[in-house]
Amino acid sequence: MRTPNIAANWKMHKTVAEARTLVQAMVGDLQGLQEVECVLCPPFTALQAVAELVRGTGIAVGAQDMYWEEQGAFTGEISPLMVKELGQYVIIGHSERRQYFGETDETVNRKVHAALAHGLIPIVAVGENLAQNEAGETEAFVSGQVRRGLAGLSPEQARRIIVAYEPIWAIGTGRPATGTDANRIIGGVVRATLGEMFGRDVAEEIRIQYGGSVKPDNIAEFVSQPEIDGALVGGASLKAADFVAIVRTTAEVKGGSR
Ligand code: PGA
């Protein structure tokens, strides 16, 4: 059985003071929901404050991106060593990084290798845009992103990653995919591709999240699907009550299906 994982992607929101307030408002409730792995991904500037507040609670911390080199003349970048001091996870290849900051499958691949080499768990994001979806290209595109982004990993390394399937047209739009469609792509495309790359047994162990307009009132639709192991949550992770409700429903649904 794959342990469900819910990750909060705060994107470029929350000052350090605001981050503290948000974490303090949810840490107590989240601590009672240990059957779900919970990861908070604040902006780099708030990583340390969040890490201090969740220390010893079982709640994990992640960065939203990082560079692959350990150190050097890379102004503005953050290295795996720096992330590792503060967190256990790192989101790699979010569609906003791909769209606005030139992230490619090749840079995703380098970052995934670097994250694993440093003991971080990468949450690797993939997903098609609206035009690709409407043109019936979703399967080929997402499968290609998985293949190129995860190229060269050993099965042992692949076991440790998390993949987030986030259709771009569903992110921040209030227009989520349906649970059945997300389950079909996650099982039939993402997990199937992982199976071809790393073997079926390994693919069965890899956690795959859905992301895109996940809210308290639709999370059950996703996590009740057999292939969906959790969610990457943007907007709804900025409100303590909403995020706690998402984690709680996941615990209930996944716990009940065991
Ligand atoms: P959203 O963002 O939940 O606000 O749609 C999800 C994401 O981009 O990870």
Summarize the structure in words:
By secondary structure, the protein is an alpha/beta fold. It has a single domain (5-256), classed as TIM Barrel (Alpha-Beta Barrel), CATH 3.20.20. It is 47% helix and 14% strand. It is built from twelve helices and eight strands. The protein has helices at 16-31, 44-54, 80-86, 95-100, 105-117, 130-134, 138-149, 155-158, 179-198, 200-205, 219-223, 240-256; strands at 5-9, 37-41, 60-63, 89-92, 121-126, 162-165, 207-211, 230-233. α3 (80-86) links the parallel β3 and β4 (89-92). It is globular. It starts with a strand and ends with a helix.
Describe how the helices and strands are arranged:
Elements: E1 5-9, H1 16-31, E2 37-41, H2 44-54, E3 60-63, H3 80-86, E4 89-92, H4 95-100, H5 105-117, E5 121-126, H6 130-134, H7 138-149, H8 155-158, E6 162-165, H9 179-198, H10 200-205, E7 207-211, H11 219-223, E8 230-233, H12 240-256
Parallel strand pairs: 1-2, 1-8, 2-3, 3-4, 4-5, 5-6, 6-7, 7-8
Helix pairs in contact: 1-2, 1-12, 5-7, 7-9
Bound molecules: 2-phosphoglycolic acid.
The site of 2-phosphoglycolic acid has 13 residues, from strand 8.
Computed Rg: 17 Å
Bound molecules: 2-phosphoglycolic acid
Classified by CATH, the class is: Alpha Beta
What class would the helix/strand composition place it in?
alpha/beta
